[in-house]
């Protein structure tokens, strides 16, 4: 109740402030068509304002992402849209397509196969992609005045609730040089016992955009700690509480879990620096009123450096004998520690797109050299015999890229790379995508295609892993993956259809090696490969329907795996959002009132292993299905100038089929509770 009062007070202050404040001569606002600039009389100004009254703050901002290989820019919209703002803090994704353990920031896995990223070399952070921002998705900016965004999200109470605080700041030193930082902190206390999460990220960034020289720099530090409870000891507490509960009234914290005083911890930091020197010429403008020449780059010399340092600890002070199949070292070995470092340098020469009429595409050739180092415990002997073993790998690879980004009609990119030395020798990656854009019956149509052929060496930790509870050294074959996707998009109809198919040979996965024990099974994991071909077919249909203030957005995905025992997938996954959208307070306060639902059909979803922090197949002798359960949220979403606010009742469908209210086996969903969020942009 206190949080609701706080929200109403803030909203009232914002509305009142707008009515009385006449000194906001120029403001920034995000619309469905992109950013716009308005004065107090609601007059539209050009997006790139250069002449501003000296008494006002000049507001102008651009954001972009970069290609992690060569630093090529891709413009992206400024993240100030209100639509679906209420969903951006969800660990299960904007449209609820991820399985996770119930608490904010816990490990997750997409139910949609085509959304899954390949395993990285340090697999332990892969399930935290909710929190970790990859290099090619980090947003750089250029701003005319210092820009800051502060966001806060909260739910539940002080005993079992969740909080997330995010900050982003950027400032220019002149027209070309920019630097800033971002901060992200997630703390989930956990509705069930021993499942608290604490995630921290701090990132420094900088960029310079000159005619002949430019660079992008990132330094990030991540700390991720998660308490592991192994799931609840008996699903009947959720499925049929009348059979097991000793009291007519109990809370989630009363339900026993398998583990306590057990944690997974990941600490890492990353340095990324890409820069280039451009050769070219200045084109004198035909319009003599312009006071600048246009630089045309012809050739670029590119260098990219990336350094990654990762450490993972599994900490267990209590180890129940009926839970683990193996305890190789015993209680004197309470911390499993493994580390991974990578130093990668890429050198490239690019013939730039569009430097003359005969060069319709850009062409880049590159060579890449990477040093990888892994450390982990070795030998199953006594404590005096144990030591850390170091594994090293040196990888030399070469490749090229053909790229066309300019123009409005046709764009394409073909990228190829192959490794010549090290454990990766013989692997290759050929990826291509293209899109064709044209007008048809007053509509904008886009036809797009994606394809790749990859020969992949399974990640190091699939081949080698030594720890207190799990131990393997595997001689694995290389995976072969081939995928083709096609997409149709109609802007006027609000319709997108994507269809794809993938074939996998030697699919590598975490298998269940549970051992029978006293009427149950003890936890164990192994790595397996499927020698047969596995085909996955997927199709996703998105449709946004609008009739006046009534809106209905839908996304439904159908997929089929040819081997559900090895690669289980739900047949259907859907998201539906029904809402009213309108304006109040002299049309300056935008409002969305609605309810959305997440749903997927029953399937044998992957289980979760605390020992390695990964999802793996369920025990074939003791499997359960999850799914066929709607998760419904009711919300109000508000946007006033620089400010976005939402209020929500989460999981109002609680009780509509408790037997299916899991997003991972033995890890129940949080019960119904109130959530809210606030995001505020500052220009000064």
Query: What is the structural class?
Result: mainly beta
Distance N to C terminus: 34 Å
- Count of DSSP helices? 3
**Overall pLDDT score:** 87
Number of strands: 40
In words, what does this structure look like?
Helix content is about 5%, strand content about 55%. By secondary structure, the chain is mostly beta strands. The protein is globular. The strands form 9 sheets. It has a 22-stranded antiparallel β-barrel. A 3-stranded antiparallel β-sheet has the order 1-2-3, with no helix packed on it. It contains 3 helices and 40 strands. It has one domain (about 1-684): Maltoporin, Chain A, CATH 2.40.170.
In a few lines, what is going on in this structure?
This protein has 684 residues and is mainly beta.
Key descriptive features of the protein:
single chain; 40 strands; 684 residues; Maltoporin, Chain A; mainly beta
Give me the secondary-structure topology.
Elements: H1 2-20, E1 27-31, E2 34-38, E3 44-45, E4 61-66, E5 73-76, E6 98-100, E7 108-110, E8 140-143, E9 147-155, E10 162-173, E11 177-188, E12 197-209, E13 213-227, H2 236-239, E14 262-283, E15 294-316, E16 335-351, E17 362-378, E18 387-404, E19 410-419, E20 428-440, E21 443-456, H3 460-463, E22 464-466, E23 471-473, E24 479-490, E25 495-505, E26 507-512, E27 515-517, E28 520-522, E29 525-530, E30 534-547, E31 550-561, E32 572-584, E33 589-600, E34 607-609, E35 614-616, E36 631-640, E37 643-650, E38 662-664, E39 667-668, E40 673-683
Antiparallel strand pairs: 1-2, 2-3, 4-5, 4-8, 6-7, 9-10, 9-40, 10-11, 11-12, 12-13, 13-14, 14-15, 15-16, 16-17, 17-18, 18-19, 19-20, 20-21, 21-24, 22-23, 24-25, 25-30, 26-29, 27-28, 30-31, 31-32, 32-33, 33-36, 34-35, 36-37, 37-40, 38-39
């Amino acid at each position: 109740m206190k949080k609701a009062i706080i929200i109403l007070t803030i909203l009232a202050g914002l509305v009142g402030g707008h009515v009385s404040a006449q000194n906001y001569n120029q403001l920034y606002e995000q619309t469905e068509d992109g950013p716009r600039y308005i004065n107090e009389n609601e007059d539209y100004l050009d997006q790139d304002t250069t002449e501003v009254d000296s008494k006002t703050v000049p507001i102008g901002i651009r954001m972009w992402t970069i290609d992690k290989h060569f630093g090529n820019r891709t413009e992206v919209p400024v993240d100030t849209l209100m639509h679906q703002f209420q969903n951006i803090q969800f660990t299960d994704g904007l449209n609820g397509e991820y399985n996770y353990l119930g608490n904010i920031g816990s490990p997750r896995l997409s139910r949609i196969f085509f959304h899954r990223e390949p395993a990285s070399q340090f697999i332990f952070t892969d399930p935290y992609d909710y929190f970790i921002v990859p290099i090619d998705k980090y947003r750089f900016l250029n701003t005319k005045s210092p820009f800051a965004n502060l966001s806060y999200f909260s739910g539940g109470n002080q005993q079992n609730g969740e909080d997330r605080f995010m900050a982003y700041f950027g400032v220019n030193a002149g027209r070309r040089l920019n630097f800033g930082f971002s901060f992200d902190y997630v703390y989930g206390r956990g509705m069930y016992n021993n499942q608290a999460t604490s995630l921290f990220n701090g990132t420094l960034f900088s960029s310079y955009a000159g005619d002949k020289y430019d660079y992008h720099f990132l330094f990030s530090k991540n700390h991720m700690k998660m308490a592991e409870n192994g799931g609840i000891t008996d699903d009947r507490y959720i499925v049929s509480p009348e059979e097991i509960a000793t009291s007519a009234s109990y809370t989630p914290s009363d339900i026993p879990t398998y583990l306590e005083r057990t944690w997974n911890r990941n600490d890492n930091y990353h340095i990324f620096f890409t820069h280039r020197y451009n050769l070219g010429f200045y084109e004198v403008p035909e319009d003599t009123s312009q006071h600048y020449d246009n630089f045309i780059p012809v050739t670029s010399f590119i260098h990219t450096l990336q350094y990654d340092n990762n450490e993972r600890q599994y900490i267990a002070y209590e180890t129940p004998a009926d839970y683990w199949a193996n305890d190789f070292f015993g209680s004197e070995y309470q911390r499993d520690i493994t580390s991974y470092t990578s130093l990668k340098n890429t050198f490239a020469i690019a013939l730039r797109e569009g430097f003359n009429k005969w060069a319709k595409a850009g062409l880049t050739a590159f060579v890449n050299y990477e040093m990888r180092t892994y450390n982990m415990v070795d030998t199953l002997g006594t404590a005096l015999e144990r030591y850390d073993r170091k594994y090293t790998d040196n990888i030399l690879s070469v490749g090229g890229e053909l790229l066309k980004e300019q123009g409005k009609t046709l764009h394409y990119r073909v990228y190829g790379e192959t490794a010549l030395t090290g454990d990766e020798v013989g692997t290759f990656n050929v990826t291509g995508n293209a899109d064709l854009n044209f007008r048809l019956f007053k509509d904008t149509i886009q036809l797009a295609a994606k394809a790749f052929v990859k020969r992949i060496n399974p990640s190091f930790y699939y081949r080698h892993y030594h720890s207190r509870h799990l131990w393997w050294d595997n001689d694995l074959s290389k995976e072969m993956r081939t995928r083709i996707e096609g997409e149709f998009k109609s802007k006027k109809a609000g319709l997108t259809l994507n269809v794809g198919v993938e074939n996998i040979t030697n699919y590598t996965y975490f298998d269940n090696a549970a051992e029978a024990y006293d009427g149950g099974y003890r936890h164990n994991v192994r790595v397996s490969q499927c020698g047969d071909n596995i085909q996955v077919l997927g199709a996703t249909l998105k449709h946004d329907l609008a009739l006046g203030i009534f809106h209905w957005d839908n996304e439904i995905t159908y997929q089929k795996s040819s081997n559900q025992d090895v690669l289980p997938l739900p047949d259907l996954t859907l998201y539906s959002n029904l809402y009213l959208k309108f304006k109040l307070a002299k049309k300056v306060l935008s409002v969305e009132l609605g309810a959305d639902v997440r749903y997927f059909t029953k399937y044998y979803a992957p289980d979760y292993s605390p020992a390695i922090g990964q999802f793996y197949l369920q025990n074939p002798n003791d499997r359960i299905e999850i799914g066929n359960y709607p998760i419904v949220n009711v919300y109000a979403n508000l946007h006033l100038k620089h400010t976005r606010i939402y209020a929500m009742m989460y999981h109002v469908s609680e009780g509509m089929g408790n037997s299916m209210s899991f997003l991972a086996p033995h890890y129940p969903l949080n019960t119904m509770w109130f959530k809210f969020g606030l995001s505020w942009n500052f220009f000064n």
